Amino acid sequence: MNGQLPLLLRPVERLGDGALSIVESLGRFGGFLGQAIGIMLTPPFKWRAFVDRINYIGFRSLLIILLTGAFTGMVLGLQLYLTLSRFGSEAFLGPAVALALIRELGPVLAALMVTGRAGSALTAELGIMRITEQIDALTVMALNPLRYLVVPSLLAGLVSFPLMTALFDTVGIFGGYLVGVKLLGLSEGTYFGEMQTFVHMDDIMMGFWKSALFGVVVTWVATYKGFNVGHGAEGVARATTQSVVLASVLILVWDYFLGSVLP
Amino acid sequence: MIKVEGLTKAFRGQPVLRGVNLEIPTGSITVIIGRSGGGKSVFLKHLIGLLRPDAGHVIVDEQDVTALHGRALDQVRQRYGVVFQGGALFDSLTCAENVAFPLREKLGLPRAETVRRVDAALAQVSLEGAAGKYPAEISGGMRKRVAIARALVIEPQIIFFDEPTTGLDPILVNTIHRLILELHSRHHFTALIVSHEIPEIFEIADSVAMLADGRIIETGPPAAIQASRNPVVQKFIRGEPE
Questions:
Q1: B118/B74 same-domain check
Q2: I need a labelling partner for A66 at 20 to 30 A (CA). Which of A205, B81, B112, B138 fits?
Q3: For residue B119, what are the domain limits?
């Protein structure tokens, strides 16, 4: 077919092939989530696998969440104090740290950290299961691999991301407190009092919705890439890299859209 | 009876199967031989429904597997046991949990019955002592035997073995072959074995089919295959280089 086309038209054909391939990939990507949601809504539910995934994605990410949360809060405390003090507004340090963390940095940074730790591991684990025929073994046992390997991860992401984000925010607020109050001498009452005045439920809900969506996006990308891995160790390595990059980009893209849409 | 008719498959325009025809009688041990990369595993994956052919049919007891999807295909698979090339044991489960997995998930047996059947299956492959070990903690030969136990524990009517002895030393090769023969005489399942263990595999086969150039070029009892005048068959059996 390719050889029959005039030379001038071949770049157009290649462009068309490329566009079709992208559309097909997006279709498969969306179909994968659709199938998983369909299975999610039909029993039996694999509780053991779900608890295991909560441990894998959530509990094992706690240390990195606590560390990054604390230092993010401390950096925010320091930089915002220095900026706000130029305008004589250092009293607003508490709400500034809290709003930056709750609305924006908490969900995004927690999701990026978990993507690097658990998302990559999830892709690699499923990729190895694919190339060692463990996923095929489930299929030929007449058991749907999505029910055992994908649905528990998606639900674990949905549950554990908001919890980890809440933890990130809390630790971050105390990191800001440590620098602003204990180190730079702002009054404790001002730090928390102003926070109570300026942080509203809408801000908390925005962080919650963002983190819940990121939980689904990260586990969706990680499981899809793991399921559709190429050949051998190189295929697993490539899928893992793609998974982390794609999930990170999607987190930032969705962060912007949700930030625009949510109040 | 499994009947394969005109099975054709190409990957990115590269033909792998060019119209395979084969009959596998119920209760027999049929062995597919052929060179590495010759499409034996691809052929096997069509029989178990992991790949769909470009053309042709796989008929298992009057049912065309290639036309089935979803639950209907799963119904046919309920009768299958598959031993994959590398064993395909679940890394996160112990050997006993691997063998128990299909019993628990497919049959939903009570715990006591599951334990009894797992112990019996591991005893059949002489691996009672490995029950609590993880696949990474046991040897390649032991992994293959656990995989056989897992395939056998649900008492399937048809078992597919994808190169069950690849990478094992000659003693283990014979041990696995003898084990398959012994289990077959006890359970009377239909067995399809993909292998290139020549000549050892002839000792356990009822029938041998040679796959070359995407087609079955010779089929018959082991003695007939060994006596074949087909130069491709003879070259393969003797292991003559190109």
A1: no
A2: A205
A3: 88-155
From B133, B155, B177, the end of a domain falls on: B155
Average confidence (pLDDT) over B159-187: 88
Per the CB < 8 A criterion, the answer to whether A110 and A164 are in contact is: yes
Is A46 within a domain?
A: no
When CB atoms are compared, the residue of A134, A136, A139 closest to B90 is A134
Query: Touching check for A42 and chain B: CB below 8 Å?
Result: no
Say if A138 falls within a structural domain.
yes
Domain count across chain B: 2
B88/A136 touch (CB, cutoff 8 Å), yes or no: yes
Q: What is the CATH number of the domain that holds B12?
A: 3.40.50.300
The four Cα atoms B149, B154, B160, B161 give a dihedral, to 10 degrees, of 0
What number is the average pLDDT over the span A189-198? 94
* CA distance linking residue B131 with residue B141, whole number of Å: 15
Of the candidates B11, B84, B1, B88, the one whose C-alpha atom is nearest the C-alpha of residue B44 is: B84
Task: Tell if the CB–CB gap between B84 and A139 is shorter than 8 Å.
Answer: no
- Residue after which a domain boundary falls, among B140, B155, B170: B155
Contact residues for B236 (Cβ-Cβ < 8 A; gap 6+)? B33, B34, B35, B198, B210, B212
**Residue A9 within a domain:** no
As for the ipTM of the complex, it is: 0.90
Reduced 3-state DSSP string for A74-140: HHHHHHHHHHHHHCCCHHHHHHHHHHHHHHHHHHHHHHHHHHHHHHHHHHHHHHHHHHCCHHHHHHH
With a cut of 70, say whether residue A75 has pLDDT above it. Answer: yes
Contacts of B74 in chain A (CB under 8 A): 142
- The range of the structural domain enclosing residue A142 comes to 55-261
Same domain, B118 and B179: no
User: Measured between beta carbons, which residues in chain A are less than 8 angstroms from residue B105?
Assistant: 141, 143
Q: Tell me the per-residue pLDDT of A99-147, one tens digit each, with 9 for 90 and over.
A: 999 999 999 999 999 999 999 999 999 999 999 999 999 999 999 999 9
